[in-house]
Amino acid sequence: MSEQGKVALFGASGVIGQSVVQALRAQGREYRVVGRSMSSLKREFGSDPKAELVTWNPEDPASVRAAARGVHTLIYLVGLPYTEFRMHPVLTRRTLEGAIAEGVKRLVQIGTLYSFGRPQAERVTEDHPREPHTFKGKMRKQQEDLLLEAGASGAIQTTILRLPDFYGPNVERSFLHGAFRAALDGKRAQLIGPIDRPHEFVFVPDVGPVVTALMDEPRAYGRTWNLGGAGVTTQREMAERIFAEVGRRPKLMVANRPMLRMLGLFDSFLRELFEMHYLLTEPLIVDDSALRNLLGEVKKTPYAEGIRLSLAAMREQDAAARRSPAPASPAHTPA
Q: Entry's Pfam families (predicted)?
């Protein structure tokens, strides 16, 4: 246990949670991981003696309280499929109530840019109006409001770190994943356009150290923070870099807005993604100078290095898969 007290990650199984765990391990700190499935927690964290594995049922207030018991700082990373975004404020309220009841001192939420709505400035600071025009943005704003109101009440200290799109090793839910996979397989990358508008991407392994530094900084609480990428780029530039890294000429197939709508008739994820298409047509580039002024140095892996590291991890994963054939049974149960 650190001198700051027990740290618990609610929703640690995602890629951002894994990055935070790596940062905690590097600091030699004990931590609790909270998830629905003990078998999944054991598979992902069971080999680490510093990890405490705890299951929870967010539908059960007693279970939420038990998961938060003895915790000083709670990092909230609970993700939901687009089709279940209505539950974001609900789960956040339940977690806040349980955390406050158990005397948790601090709560850090890892959020998105959805609550801003359409950008009204070339660079979006934390003071940018929050005027979401999408259902998903409105759910994220409600979630943020709950956290900020709880912090203002004095019942618990809260802060929110907002992230743009991200990429990195083992990150499949990324606009760039298809380009990585296609470059390695010698196929055509399927991207969602337009791909020439300004964009930024955060390299996932960079996030963990920022989160741990933020949660330990008393001045971080009572407001929100932005974390930007390693610079302004475009999807096309990133895809070309990815293909160049493997020594292949880029082969791209771009789905425009009408095509995305049509594909959404057959794919629920793409159907829900259509609502957020404005993030590709109306560049939302964040200003994270406030975060850098607070924490000092904030490491941002250059895109060229992040691409190289991501490809290396995918090659290693592919090699491991070839060494360990999949089970004969075709049965599959969604997580």
A: Epimerase
Question: In this predicted structure, what is the pLDDT of residue 121?
Answer: 96
Q: Region of 2 please: left (phi>0), alpha (psi -120 to 50) or beta.
A: beta
Measure the CA–CA gap between 252 and 188, rounded to whole angstroms.
5
The ranges of the chain with pLDDT < 70 are: 1-4, 264, 325-335
- Cα separation values, 271 from 175, 194, 247, Å: 15, 17, 34
Omega before 194 within 30 of 0, i.e. cis? yes
pLDDT tens digits for range 280-331 = 999 999 999 999 999 998 999 999 999 999 999 999 988 888 887 655 443 3
Residue position matching structure tokens 């996932």: 204
Q: Evaluate whether residue 332 is within a structural domain.
A: no
Residue 31: give its domain's CATH number.
3.40.50.720
